[in-house]
Amino acid sequence: MTEHEDFSALLNEFEREHPGQGNKLPQVGERVRGRIVSIGSELAFVDLGVKAEAVIDIAELTDTEGAMPQVGDSIESVVLSRDDLTGTLTLGGGHGRAVHDAAGLEQAFSNGIPVEGTVSTVTKGGLEVQVAGVRGFCPASQVDNRFVDDLEGFIGQKLSFRITKFEGGRRPNLVLSRRALLDEEARRQAEELRTRLEVGLVLKGKVTSVKDYGAFVDLGGLEGMVHVSELAYGRGTRPQDVLSPGQDVEVAVLRIEKSDNPAKGERIALSIRALTADPWQDAEQRFPVGTAIKGTVTRLQPFGAFVEVEPGLEALVPVSELGTGRRVSHPKEVLNPGDAIEATVIAVDAARRRLTLSLDAAAHTEAADIEAWRSKPKPKAQESVGSFGELLRESMNKAKPRK
């Protein structure tokens, strides 16, 4: 039995099990999902649930590491063409099809099939792209679905485009769009992500832009924002200092707020901080009372000075603990923001996120020694050797004459 006969038998079995289905054929350019039913030496046969054969080149299924789906696996692809004689549908990845002549370009344009092209140079207003030996033009606004400041980085790259304008003749006129394909892929990814999006979900994304108030992250079709307060534990973290456009990050979903405007979609609040350890979690074990620690003064208040011991963990030196043998009315008399200091832990309460320090370590050491002496068990008093009266009585008895 040949591969085609085998596929026909499977198709007939599907029709018996699903009567009334399989009449509507997908159109060229339409994205479809199907199940691999057999794999040959060059082609794989795919069941789309319609009364027509669908085949896909093995090369389209093989990834960069040489792995490929197996019989029974589901795949998603695009209808590249339909044979008018046999009705066979040819599928592809939808990421760009290599064409070899003007006729292939015209067919790709008519059917909306992506084509592969190599960027040759940057021209005024866009890119010059070589497609099947024909010079095409991709406007700067159609190169990406985000603003690109420098197009030089695209030179030499082989990319996929959709032909938006085709004029035949001895010198065909070709206008291309890469953005159209990126937008389509983003919409598909957004639909898939919405089916599983929920608070607490951890996702990988890419930073798209950084602002003073936070950073925007592309989650794959949907965009969320990490507010500056959710970047890291601690005060004063600037988004520009820790993130940059194009950086890969891992985030947790904090909130999903539906918008009244369907065009804007949902607002997704993200957090990077939620995926890192809370520095207060084991503060009592790491900073017991009496520990000498170093820190940096972050700000001054009339009641004391705040000191960053480590990122996300800030301690307080009360104004009463700033003096080393003298009275201090305000922290500014002895400290300035940015000063590096060494202090002693005098109290720690991780539950209330409070760590209290003192600059007067000697006083606390002396007080601790006194308290330790007071609490130390005292030895019992020795037996008295006798009072003066007892000594006098004993002496008088010795002086009496014996009878």
Describe this structure in words.
The protein has 403 residues and is of the alpha+beta class. The chain has 4 domains: 3-92, OB fold (Dihydrolipoamide Acetyltransferase, E2P) (Beta Barrel); 102-182, Beta Barrel (OB fold (Dihydrolipoamide Acetyltransferase, E2P)), CATH 2.40.50; 196-275, Nucleic acid-binding proteins (OB fold (Dihydrolipoamide Acetyltransferase, E2P), Beta Barrel); 283-372, Nucleic acid-binding proteins (OB fold (Dihydrolipoamide Acetyltransferase, E2P), Beta Barrel). The chain is 20% helix and 35% strand. It contains 8 helices and 20 strands. It has helices at residues 3-17, 58-61, 102-111, 179-194, 239-242, 283-286, 361-375, 388-399, and strands spanning 31-39, 43-47, 54-57, 74-82, 89-92, 115-123, 126-131, 134-139, 158-167, 173-177, 202-211, 214-218, 223-227, 248-257, 267-271, 292-301, 304-310, 313-318, 340-349, 354-358. The strands form 4 sheets. Strands 1-2-3-5-4 form a 5-stranded mixed barrel. It has a 5-stranded mixed β-barrel with strand order 6-7-8-10-9. It has a 5-stranded mixed β-barrel with strand order 11-12-13-15-14. The relative contact order is 0.06.
